[in-house]
Amino acid sequence: DVIIFKIILLPLDIIHFLWFNIRWILMFRILSKEYGPQEHVYITRQVLRMREDDWLNLQEEERKEFLDLQLWDQEKLEEWQQQQMVADEEKRREFMQSNRYKKFKRFMKK
Question: Mean per-residue pLDDT for 17-27?
Answer without folding.
Answer: 96
